[in-house]
From TrEMBL:
Pfam families: Rubredoxin. It comes from Candidatus Intestinimonas pullistercoris. This is Rubredoxin. Its cofactor is Fe(3+). Fe cation binds at residues 6, 9, 39, 42. Belongs to the rubredoxin family.
Amino acid sequence: MDRYICEVCGYVYEPEQGDPDHGVAPGTPFASLPAHWVCPLCGVGKEQFSKD
């Protein structure tokens, strides 16, 4: 699965780890993240991420 990086703060979303602190289970691909999901570090939306 592809990693995605936040263009604002550099946070890397790694599908293997997910984002359990925000309700995203490990193994969740970036494309399957809920529409309301935001970067856990800076709070921007998915549209500010690009494939790493």
